Queue: 2 jobs
Job 1
Amino acid sequence: MKKTYSEPQQPEIPRLALRPKEAAVALGMSEKALFSRTVPRGDIPAVKLGSRVAYFPHQIREWADRELARQQRAAQQQTDGEEGVA
């Protein structure tokens, strides 16, 4: 019987940054929309790594939370304004 040698299992290294396509998928938008909303054109944080752009998952989550809160405030203000019109 022949013995086979297998490489020891390496622990999976967590990804520290997302590529633009991955960040766009995570946010549910196109890469073009992501690019137009990325700093300095917009408010989504990103870093330049050489010639590439990277997005940190925790910053993407923080941005999404802020954006959700902003939209909820805007909707509430609109609702409050409509109640005063009646």
Note: The chain has one domain: 20-85.
Job 2
Amino acid sequence: MNNQHSPGSAARESESVGSGNPSMMIDSFINKIDATMTSKNTLDHRINDIIHKKEKDNSPSAKRGRMKMAMRAIVGEFFCCLMFYTPVYGCIVNLNYHGGNTFTTECLAFVQGLQAIAVCFAFSGVSGAHFNSAVSFALWLTGKLSNRKVILYILVQLLASVLSMGIVVSMFKYDNVDMARVCTVTPESGGDKLSFVFASEFFMTFILVFTAFTVVFEDAEEQKKQNMSFQTIGDSRGLTLYASTPQSKAGFAPFAIGFTVFSLCLIHGESGGAFNPSRMFGPALISGKWDYLWLYWIAQFLGAAVAGLLVHNVQRFGIELKSSTNEVSAEEAVRNIQRNRTVSTNVTSDNETTTYNVIKS
């Protein structure tokens, strides 16, 4: 019988021995993790460079992609506002002429809350579904919306408010100016207690923007990496978009925003509960009733700015604090394992040498 093994069988035996060696298996597993982490970190760095405007593709196709994405977002925001303001104005006119005062506040709160949920689901991935100039202003202030886009956003929000009021005027037989006047928001006590008006609008806008930033907008850039393609991330520079699907982190954000709008409408306050600069513009323009609009807008934009900056800076401080304490990245954990294995191997080798020398002596 021939006892010699072929080169192929010897290689297979060596491979089977190697594959059965626990030490080699662990080393192979660690090397695979290390390679995966290196590849992932390289990709993350490139995506972060694109998001934070450190890397920009100026090719004609990339410019067309960004322009297309920007136009899509602007048009989407226009229709988002149109879908939100029209039912709100229509409900106010209908309740004023047909519903009397029975459950008026509750009905308006339901309409605005439910409509906010609907437009967030419909337009969150298109324009970010702001439907509120104060929200757009806060996003711009925290660097999440570019200079050009914040101007276009606010312009289309104001335009949508005017067109929504025009649509509602065409749906009812009453006097146009009178219907627009009904939809305006004015102080409940006239001009006697403007400090309460300012406080109402400031804190209600603050609560809305704080909620929106906490549940979705502050982490929107990170969610882009999880839910969008590489090309879409590049095309959506300067836009704050998010996916409101059940699989995404922001899947329930529309409900949080809608419920917040509902509760704020029930609060009402001495101001009448607007907490939205563009919502006030259309009725004021058509009716010519601009009473204390400047005070509302100052309070709303200031409340939005404070909320946005607060969440943005608190989140940044929290992330830095975590990374500087006890949390260790996966890459560092792999390196620690490798170092420990090297130390363990050296100690074992030294012990074996010492034992051999003792026996020999």
Note: The two ends are 45 Å apart (CA to CA).
